[in-house]
Amino acid sequence: MTCVRKHPQPNRHKGITHLGGKGWGMTRWQVTAAINSGGEIFYTQVGGKRAVLQVVNDPDAAYVRAVADDQWTDDLLSLPECPAISAVPPRPQR
Length: 94
What we know:
four-stranded antiparallel beta sheet
């Protein structure tokens, strides 16, 4: 995970709408679903320290936060803004 897209919210972590890396991007919903299915592991590397993304199941909506050394971090919030990320992958052109 190297970038995020955010929408202003009182809880800044809930404001993360998209997450991405080199050549890829996903919605927050896609990332939480992938983590919850047990099929994917996402992480950040901030200041030389690796933090794994975990899902926070809030009554309003699930969101992700980074955890390093068993402590929640604000690593995702410190990542730069992603370039435009489409919520739905584009269809191949015919």
